[in-house]
């Protein structure tokens, strides 16, 4: 099984799928799923854009890619997604239409994840719940924790909600060992004044082989977590730099074969083939 991981796509919903298609063609290695660490840019109604998205969208229409390409059917996009036949599973970030996502989450209250787009290829997983990806005789177990933390006790919907904390408390009682934790925010063990305390608690009390996160704007980095067990990986945001290229560590591949996990940092020689100026035409 191979799973591609991305973070902070900010409306460029098609870009992870196109990068996966490119990766498969260049390497001959099949990708089975995409996991995405939040800031999807899921805004189906432009009246509900947050201030940051409005600001960026003035200069970059890609910020509105969910509205443009994933709320009403485009036959070309549908044909491409059907051909690729891969689903993307996301956690919520802080730049989403949370009222829209709340409505869908309540409609799918018996499911651990729910589709959010017209093609039913983009899913959001509920925070704190056990999830499994299954391909033939291989299973990858993961948990997602969405939104961001706040040390000031604010309750706006971009911050973790009480019902999600309840699910996380249930998770802490498990004796299971998980392959992957995906979060939008990082834990709160740093000195920069932000992070989510619930992530730190989960990492201290539940065993994960890997933790992937985004949000912070920091470069890609991989290090052993404070718990001494988990490999912590900051995925570089899927953003084009001033030269119009994607930076190192924006695309990670997790492979699970015969129960063994490995990760690959996709080389920039591959990702550089998809630039700010050509990716939509690829």
UniProtKB/TrEMBL annotation:
Span of domain Calcineurin-like phosphoesterase: 1-217
Domain of life: Bacteria
UniProt-listed Pfam families: Metallophos (PF00149)
InterPro entries: Calcineurin-like_PHP (IPR004843), Metallo-depent_PP-like (IPR029052)
The name this protein goes by in its record: Metallophosphoesterase
Species for this entry: Flavobacterium cerinum
């Amino acid at each position: 099984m191979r799973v591609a991981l991305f973070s902070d796509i900010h409306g460029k919903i098609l870009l992870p799928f196109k990068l996966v298609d490119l990766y498969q063609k260049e390497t001959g290695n099949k990708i089975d799923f995409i996991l995405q660490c939040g800031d999807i840019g899921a805004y189906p109604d432009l009246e509900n854009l947050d201030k940051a998205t409005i600001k960026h969208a003035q200069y970059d229409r890609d910020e509105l890619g969910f509205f443009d390409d994933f709320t009403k059917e485009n036959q070309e996009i549908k044909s491409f997604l059907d051909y690729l036949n891969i689903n993307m599973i996301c956690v919520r970030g802080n730049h989403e239409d949370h009222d829209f996502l709340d409505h869908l989450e309540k409609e799918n209250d018996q499911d651990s994840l729910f589709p959010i787009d017209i093609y039913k290829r983009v899913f959001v997983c509920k925070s704190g719940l056990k999830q499994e990806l299954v391909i033939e005789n291989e299973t990858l177990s993961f948990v997602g924790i969405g939104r961001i933390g706040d040390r000031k006790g604010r309750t706006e919907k971009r911050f973790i909600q009480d019902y999600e904390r309840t699910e996380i408390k249930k998770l802490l009682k498990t004796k299971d060992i998980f392959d992957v934790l995906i979060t939008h925010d990082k834990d709160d063990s740093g000195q920069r004044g932000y992070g989510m305390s619930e992530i730190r608690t989960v990492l201290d009390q539940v065993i994960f082989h890997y933790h992937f996160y985004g949000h912070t704007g920091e470069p890609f980095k991989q290090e052993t977590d404070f718990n001494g067990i988990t490999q912590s990986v900051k995925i570089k945001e899927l953003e084009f730099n001033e030269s119009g290229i994607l930076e190192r560590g924006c695309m990670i591949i997790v492979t699970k074969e015969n129960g063994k996990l490995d990760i690959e940092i996709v080389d920039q020689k591959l990702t550089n083939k998809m630039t700010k100026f050509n990716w939509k035409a690829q």
